[in-house]
Design brief:
mainly alpha, two-stranded parallel ribbon, 2 strands, 47% helix, 6% strand
Length: 66
């Protein structure tokens, strides 16, 4: 059913967003189907505003190559 929904959305040029992804296997499967955006516990548990800000700052640190 998921494959059919993603295929139909893609054929209509709609962006597909998957919610509730918790495991690498689910993430990989959805990417293989052509899902555009994936969100949920696979990336991060729910955060308070302060926790999110700290998480965001940590994720967006510049990479230094020497």
């Amino acid at each position: 059913m998921v494959a059919a929904i993603v295929a139909m959305a893609n054929s209509l040029n709609l962006q597909v967003i998957a919610e509730g992804v918790e495991k690498l296997a689910h993430y990989s499967y959805l990417l293989d189907l052509g899902c555009d955006v994936i969100q949920a516990y696979y990336y991060c548990r729910p955060l308070t505003q302060r926790q999110w800000f700290e998480f965001y700052q940590h994720q967006n640190q510049p990479t230094v190559i020497s």
